[in-house]
Amino acid sequence: MPEITAIVQHEAGLHARPLAQFVKTARKFDASIRVTNLTRNRGPAEGTSPLNLMLLAVSQGHEIRIEADGPEAEEALVALRTLINQDFEG
To answer: Is 10 a catalytic residue?
Structure first.
C-alpha cells in the first residue's frame, strides 16, 4: 500500500480550513485514505471523515503518515502531498 509522510506546517495544524481542504481533496479520488499522527501516535483515521481526522489532534509541526489504497491511490497521495506542501492553499 503506497504511503507518504509529511510535516504539517500550517499554524492551525489539521483543523478548521486545512482539515476541510484535506477532506475535499481526499474525496476527489477513488482511493481509501488513512491518516496517522506519528507525533502523538494516534490513528489511523479515515481521511475523508472530518470528525475522525479531528480526533488525531494534528498540530503545527506534527508528522503524519498518509496511506492510500485503490485505483487512484498514487494520484491521491500526490495531491495530498502538494496540498500540505502548499500550506493548504490548494
So the answer is: no
If phi > 0 it is left, if psi is from -120 to 50 it is alpha, else beta; for residue 57 that is left
Report residue 1's pLDDT band, with 50, 70 and 90 as the boundaries: confident
Q: What is the pTM of this model?
A: 0.95
Which of 66, 75, 67, 64 has the alpha carbon at shortest distance from 30?
A: 75
Domains and CATH numbers, the chain: 3-85 (3.30.1340.10)
> Which tens digit of pLDDT belongs to each residue from 8-21?
999 999 999 999 99
In the set 10, 15, 34, 62, the catalytic residue is 15
Task: Give 9's DSSP letter.
Answer: -
